[in-house]
Amino acid sequence: MRVVVLVSGSGTLLQALLDAAATDPAAPYEVVAVGADRAGTGGVDRARAAGVPTFVVPLAAYDERADWDAALAAAVAEHAPDLVVSAGFMKVLGPAALAGPPVLNAHPALLPSFPGAHAVRDALAHGVKVSGCTIHLVDAGVDTGPVVAQRAVEVLDDDDEATLHERIKVAERALLVEVLDRLARGGMVVEGRKVRLG
Length: 198
Prior knowledge:
Radius of gyration: 16 Å
Structural class: alpha/beta
Shape: globular
Oligomer: single chain
Order of helices and strands: EHEHEHEHEHEEHEE
Site (Raises pKa of active site His): 143
EC number: 2.1.2.2
InterPro entries: Formyl_transf_N, Formyl_transf_N_sf, GART, GART_AS
Strand content: 15-25%
Catalytic activity: N(1)-(5-phospho-beta-D-ribosyl)glycinamide + (6R)-10-formyltetrahydrofolate = N(2)-formyl-N(1)-(5-phospho-beta-D-ribosyl)glycinamide + (6S)-5,6,7,8-tetrahydrofolate + H(+)
Strand order of the largest sheet: 3-2-1-4-5-6-7
Family: Belongs to the GART family.
């Protein structure tokens, strides 16, 4: 399975995928390219260090959001992926990007609770005792697509945003690798909002 990964930040989720593929000769997926919405990201640096092709499509370079979306879709399509993974990519994808192969997103909360960019902070402010991470299919909304997999993470009494987020990231990296492995080996069936991995 050919995978293009989209990043905006340090690229720790990307690194988990690269490491898993590098350490397993029988890994059923390959990261064929990494794209970013801005130059100078740690994720792009990680990809280059691993010898993976990269591309950057900055939103600021386009007058219209739709033009950026079309350019991003074209850049992704050049690598002929079977799947796109949004791994800390902090931009909402539009119709052109979503018209291609399926897009998975990793989110640091148990959706549908706490969507958006401040999920960990919002969960703590709400006083939840359990949070976690979600891998979901991306649709036109913000963190509203069908859930593919989830993993719970206990919220400790002395947690702050940084400590809880770090534990969620550990779970998120492991879950994303597992989902890609299962998806590449057995496919995926989507019926409405229900997703079943092969």
